[in-house]
Amino acid sequence: MSHSQLDQLIAMANQIADNNTHHDSEKASVDFIALHIKKFWARSMKQQIVAYAKADGSALNKLAREALAQLAEKYS
Questions:
Q1: DSSP-assigned letters across all residues of 26-72
Q2: Residue 20 DSSP one-character state
Q3: By its UniProt entry, which InterPro entries does this protein fall under (predicted)?
């Protein structure tokens, strides 16, 4: 995956996180974000973003990082 494709994945993960801060708690938001990525992203996309989150993750916002940490064991 090219750098620009990774940038797009980062932007999408952050956008999903930004749009799902309204849940009852931060944990509920993180759970929803993780579920959304799990259900709607292709396996290759999940593998790339999880690898990035584990290696650096600095461009991800807090909720996106936490959601990807939930997915890390399955898609690493």
A1: HHHHHHHHHHHHHHHS-HHHHHHHHHHHHHT-TTS-HHHHHHHHHHH
A2: T
A3: Formate_DH_dsu
